[in-house]
Design brief:
Largest sheet: 8 strands, antiparallel, barrel
Number of helices: 4
Number of strands: 8
Order of helices and strands: HHEHEEHEEEEE
Strand order of the largest sheet: 1-2-3-4-5-6-7-8
Structural class: alpha+beta
Distance between the termini: 62 Å
Length: 153
């Protein structure tokens, strides 16, 4: 019996380095509405993550934006990760939306997209090493650590 337990433990030890885990990148503080109002532009580093999941369309991160207004309205002028994650090329169009902040501990920015692309998109928050606020979303499997990120301009 002891040999069986030891064998199972050894297999587990050798298998663990190959296991991935979600990065758990969540902002530890509460974000205020005043902090999110403005123009958010795609982080250029997100383009490689999009390519890694098979997206082949042209992406200019400087033209991928989310604009949040103080009155709770917004313009969603980018592609949602749920569309790009499948590799399908879709035309980009600016659509109207409404936004709100969820409550901590895993606070989210929630966008209600209007029009033909009606949906709800959720972004989480993080901060860069230099203290800039980031809104982000997983592109696909959280264990793969691939994100679409936007930085406030």
């Amino acid at each position: 019996m002891r040999a069986v337990v030891l064998t199972v433990m050894m297999i587990g030890l050798f298998a663990m380095p190959g296991c991935q885990r979600s990065e758990g990148r969540y902002l530890e503080r509460e974000v205020t509405a005043a902090e999110v109002v403005g123009t958010w532009q795609m982080n250029p580093a997100s383009v490689q993550d999009l390519r890694d999941v098979g997206y082949t369309g042209a992406i200019d991160p400087a033209r991928e934006r989310i604009v949040l207004h103080a009155d709770g309205t917004c313009v969603f002028d980018t592609r949602p990760p749920s569309v790009v994650g499948g590799g399908r090329v879709v035309p980009k169009e600016a659509v109207a939306c409404r936004w709100k902040l969820d409550t901590p501990p895993r606070q989210m920015l929630i966008l209600a997209i209007a029009g033909n692309r009606a949906s709800t998109v959720h972004y989480l928050f993080d901060e860069s090493q230099d203290g800039r606020l980031i809104v982000w979303q997983y592109i696909d499997d959280p264990d793969a650590w691939r994100y679409v990120e936007y930085l406030k301009q």
